[in-house]
Amino acid sequence: MLDTIRYVPAARCYLPSLHDHLRVWDARQQNPTTSPAELAEMIGLDVEVPYDDCDIQRLRNEGLTVRDLERRNARARQLAVQRHLRVAQQYIDNVVLGQFPLRNRR
């Protein structure tokens, strides 16, 4: 008797998010030493940052210190990239098992 892979229905995925997961995964594979925040900026990942870059530039032009604001924005970008990589890894792990799109956790 032939061993067959049984189709296991999985959850639906949101295609724009799946595309972002793939873009981040591919960018990480091509640039393994780039920081996550730089990776997000490099690929143009849409990340909701706490402070608008235009506001930071305006404050900088007024002579104010904006280092903490830039750090918080970089942290938001870093967390977004890490989340995309984690989810992409789950999709890849489950594809090997014949289950797509399926992820176990956030």
Quick description:
This protein is mainly alpha-helical and 106 residues long. It has one domain (16-96). It is built from four helices and no strands.
Question: Your description of this structure?
Answer:
With 106 residues, the chain is mainly α. It has one domain (16-96). Helices cover 59% and strands 0% of the residues. The chain is built from four helices and no strands. It has helices spanning 15-30, 36-43, 53-61, 67-96. α2 packs across α4. The protein is elongated, with a radius of gyration of 19 Å.
Q: Give the total of domains.
A: 1
Total strands: the figure is 0
Q: How much beta, percentage-wise?
A: under 5%
Number of helices: 4
Mean pLDDT: 85
The largest β sheet comes out as:
none
Based on secondary structure, the structural category is: mainly alpha
- Contiguous uncertain segments of 5+ residues: none
Terminal Cα separation, in Å? 38 Å
Radius of gyration: 19 Å
**Overall 3D shape:** elongated
Which percent bin holds the helix content? Answer: 55-70%
Write the element-wise H/E pattern from the N-terminal end onward: HHHH
Explain the layout of strands and helices.
Blueprint lengths: L14 H16 L5 H8 L9 H9 L5 H30 L10
Index terms:
106 residues, mainly alpha
